[in-house]
Amino acid sequence: MIEQQLWHPVTASHQVRHEPVACSLLGQPLVLWREHTHDGARVHAWADRCPHRGARLSLGRVLIGVHGARLECPYHGWQFGAGDGRCQHIPAAPDFVPPPAHRTTVFEAREQHGLIWVRLQAPSHALSAEFADPPAFAQSEDTTWRTVLCGPYELNTSAPRLVENFLDLSHFGFVHEGWLGERSHAQVQTGAVDEGTGLAGLVVREARAWQPRAYAGVEEGAWIAYRYDVPHPFAAILRKDATHGDPVSNAIALFIRPDGHELCTAWFAMATQGDPVTDQELIEFQDAVFAQDRPVVESQLPRALPVGRTAPITEVHGPADRVSSAYRRYLNRLGIALGTC
Ligand code: FES
Ligand SMILES: [Fe+2]
Questions:
Q1: Cα 119 to ligand 2 centre (Å)
Q2: What is the pLDDT of residues 97-134, one digit of tens each?
Q3: CB atoms within 10 A of CB 340
Q4: Cα separation values, 334 from 27, 74, 100, 128, 322, Å
Q5: Edge-to-edge strand order for the sheet containing 115-119?
């Protein structure tokens, strides 16, 4: 299953401090924990199950000692080493040297854009180049940009429905009237869609829509040009191309953890340059915009996105839906089954 071979965000970095944290990815229970080293704090993602008698490791605790960091199981206190998840110590039999099979299941984990990313399976050869890393969001690595993480937003719909909503400019005048659009300026220009080939994602340039209040802190309306990137089936990045002389630049990335066919958890990484509003105001603005999307997106049926995988469910399309059609083709090209039908 390709979904197992992709990087997914599982939780915000700041959620994992000194104690182990339980979460779940694609039905796999995980324990996340942090090893504080001299050069930072490496995060680990393991199966949340002790190989001894199946207790949840997330109920245990992190030990720091001369042998480095270990995770201690809550049941019999077996200690598992940070590097490879091998059992290093069994308190009830302290002279016993645990064999290599006494180990936890270790997954790949990374931190990027304020989120912890996990991959459950090594990618197949075909995928490895295209999805070697979590999706890039250049602004979050650039110190001249300020980034703020919004979310998590748990949503009763599929990840693809939410990505498609994010790519859709023509709902702005209705769902976000007075905020991101106006009924009287409902027309959009879908821009130039580069669908990519093979496993490459989509790029949409020069998409345009009218915005009465394009971002927090701005009061007057304007035609805004957008660039969209879809580098991953469950992630998309929107950049507002600042018009000449505009003192404010904005970019926003949507990162989603698919939690099933009809459930997902989303975060937005907002990046701004030159915007005087506070972090809290940015978060409140995003929360308010998302609260407008939520009832409509959760009302869409089926919750899985119809991409033509299973026959009878169809939706009809208008000329302003070119980007959404391209996204559906991208999911088909990759063979994404989770959250599609
Ligand atoms: S169940 Fe984990 S140490 Fe026994
Ligand atoms: Fe929206």
A1: 29
A2: 999 999 999 999 999 999 999 999 999 888 888 899 99
A3: 23
A4: 21, 41, 37, 13, 19
A5: 8-12, 115-119, 106-112, 40-47, 28-37, 21-25
Query: What is the residue with the minimal CA distance to atom 1 of ligand 1?
Result: 53
pTM of the predicted protein model: 0.95
Please say whether the beta carbons of 174 and 184 come within 8 A: no
Ligand 2 centre from 291 Cα, in Å? 9
Query: Comparing C-alpha atoms, which of 270, 258, 268 is closest to residue 336?
Result: 258
Set out the domains of the chain in order of their start, with CATH numbers: 2-126 (2.102.10.10), 135-334 (3.90.380.10)
> For residue 32, which of 124, 101, 110 has the smallest C-alpha distance?
110
Record the tokens describing residue 295, joined without a space. 């009832």
Spacing, Cα 59 to ligand 2 middle (Å) = 39
Whose tokens are 């959009």? That residue is 188
Q: Which of 318, 305, 312, 201 is nearest to 262 (CA)?
A: 305
